[in-house]
Design brief:
mainly alpha; 254 residues
Length: 254
Amino acid sequence: MANTINRVVQREQYLILGGLLILSALAWALLIWQSSMMNNQAMGLTMGMSAFLFIAIWIVMMVAMMFPTVAPMILAFTKIYASKRQQGRAFVPSWVFISAYLLVWSLCGVIAYLLAVLSEHLAAQSMWLMDNRVHLSGGVLLVAGLYQLSPLKDICLGKCRTPLQFILTSWHDGYVGAFRMGLEHGAYCLGCCWLLFVILFPLGLMNLAVMALVTALIFAEKALPWGWQISKLAGVALILYGALVLFLPTAFPG
């Protein structure tokens, strides 16, 4: 009986993992298409997009970049509830957790859009901001690097790297509990990665090479055994590059 339950649970985990990877691949394909369509359009922090389109693209980015990194947490959640269902106990599907996780990042996208619109408005009114755009970009890179070395980054990364610890300390039963867990894990994930997404704005929100590099970094620091060291090295690299841009603006692309 136990072996049968284990096989069923394992099959459900494979299905969930396959679904997450397929969605991520489709999202990347859509981003590549969207990026090619925007090559000749005027650029800016909002890239000339409406609020609806910006948020839609932001959500697609989250699916493409974050689903592979959050997969271990979702699989752990799936395993627990799949086992409960096989034992005839209350069951909550994984989409409840995933939807709450995406809600956190979607709200982040709304805030990002509002700040981008405000920044574009201020830049249009101030020649100083336009003249010092590259220096401000270097400052953003520098701050992102410093955050990589901060205690808050370590706390959030620790929660993201250890799904079992998160489950043991943050488990809540039922649909409401699963939704709450998704919100909590999304908040830790946001706390871990938000400045890595902020640097996409000066470097190009639809810059596929930068997006791929950030995705690889987030996956490495969350999933690989030496992820802590990778996170710190990335922080040092961002600090050095940010400082270089501040003193040598020609080092900044575009």
